[in-house]
Write a structure and sequence with these properties.
TIM Barrel, alpha/beta, 10 strands, three-stranded parallel beta sheet, 9 helices, five-stranded parallel beta sheet, 15% strand
């Protein structure tokens, strides 16, 4: 009975399925060894790789030598790209390097906030989908944009919770909920989570998964935070599926009042 109650449906993205709903990045760690250990402790089954910032040649010191491609699905991303052409070429480079055809599309529109360029993101996604890529776009928490991305054929949408690396948590939970209602593809919160309670809160909104990097890699003790994030995502997912009680202004007795003994 307990196994049936706790059993969750797998996360499906494109033609891949995952038991973990936590996706993690590989940057900002003190060493590749720490990266590998933190990812293992997080329970993540998909890891994202910044194509323009990693060494793709495995004959050299590369993070690719520390991660088993049979154990993890790689999600190359286009971090550092500021226009459509750079983004498309980076995805093509990742595919030619053997990292697969599932990609996270980032087209940065503002250097200070690292907010995405929405118009360029949509354009790049359309080009890549036509070229056979499975596309997961990083975007703002814009309901209309997410609908357009889903309608264009994106395998998921990845609205930010807050600016990349800010650790502010979900700044606009209402938009995230509206996006979840508006699209039929997985909704993955990307960027802004700072601690395990942020992860749980995001999952309680009904999103399908969370992607994070700085929140773990930048923690005082990354390995402990990796475990905390794993548990936070799992707790939030369970709470969403359980269905929280409605909020009320006044108290409601925990025990029934029928049959009280007169005194």
């Amino acid at each position: 009975m307990e196994e049936t109650v706790l059993k969750d449906s797998p996360l499906k993205i494109g033609d891949k399925t995952f038991n973990s709903r936590l996706i993690v990045g590989t940057g900002k760690y003190k060493s590749f060894e720490e990266t590998r250990e933190a990812i293992a402790l997080s329970g993540a089954e998909m890891v994202t790789l910044a194509v323009r910032r990693i060494e793709l040649d495995k004959s050299k010191d590369s993070i690719l030598n520390y991660l088993d491609p049979k154990k993890y699905a790689f999600l190359p991303n286009t971090a550092g790209c500021y226009n459509v052409q750079e983004t498309v070429m980076t995805c093509q480079l990742a595919r030619e390097a053997g990292l697969g055809n599932m990609v996270k599309v980032e087209v940065i529109g503002d250097e200070k906030t690292l907010f995405p360029d929405n118009e360029a993101t949509l354009e790049a996604c359309k080009i890549l989908i036509k070229d056979g890529f499975v596309v997961l776009p990083y975007c703002t928490d814009d309901v209309v944009l997410c609908k357009k991305l889903a309608d264009a054929g994106c395998a998921a949408v990845m609205p930010l919770a807050a600016p990349i690396g800010s650790g502010l948590g979900v700044r606009n939970p209402y938009n995230i909920k509206l996006i979840r209602e508006a699209v039929d593809v997985p909704v993955i919160v990307d960027a802004g989570v700072g601690t395990a309670s942020d992860a749980a809160r995001a999952m309680e909104l009904g999103v399908d998964a969370i992607l994070m990097n700085t929140a773990i890699a930048g923690a005082k003790f990354p390995l402990k935070m990796a475990v905390a994030m794993k548990l936070g995502v799992e707790a939030g997912r369970l709470a969403f599926e359980a269905g929280r009680i409605p909020k009320k202004l006044y108290a409601t007795a925990s025990s029934p009042i029928d049959g009280l003994i007169d005194v």
